[in-house]
Amino acid sequence: MNISDQVIRQLKQGDEQAFKTVYNEFYGTLLYVSRQYVPNKDESKDAVQNAFVKLWENKSMIKESANIRNFLFTIVKNNCLNHLKKQEVIYKAHESIKHHEMLLQYEALSRFNFDELEIKELKEKVNTAIEKLPHHCQVVFKLKRFEQMKNREIAEQLGVSEKTVEAHMTKAMSLLRESLKWYLTIYLTLSDLFL
Question: What CATH code is assigned to 1-117?
Answer without folding.
Answer: 1.10.1740.10
